[in-house]
Specification:
Blueprint lengths: L5 E4 L7 H13 L4 E4 L12 H11 L4 E4 L2 E2 L5 H14 L4 E2 L2 E2 L7
Length: 108
Amino acid sequence: MTISAGIGIANFSFDDNRGFWKWVDLCDSGGVDSIWQSDRIISTDANLECMSVMAALAGGTKRIKFGMNVASLGLRDPVLTAKQCATIDVLSDGRLLPAFGIGSSRSR
């Protein structure tokens, strides 16, 4: 049996993009199986747009899988979201782990 560990990103808690990429590199080389980005369109906390982060991780990592925790289809065009996910998955050699939901009542 294999045990894997994933790490979630709820907010952008880094000082700048260099801190983010340093953390991502440590995860990618350090045995972390996956990175999960929360999908918040509007928030009082600093956060990045989920699909853009997925695309960046596709190009900026070699091994690690990544996904959204959970993409809010109530706030996104489902056809465009499907196309974005398919594109990111192809370019990352199948490392995207998509997850979808309707969002929470707090996000509306």
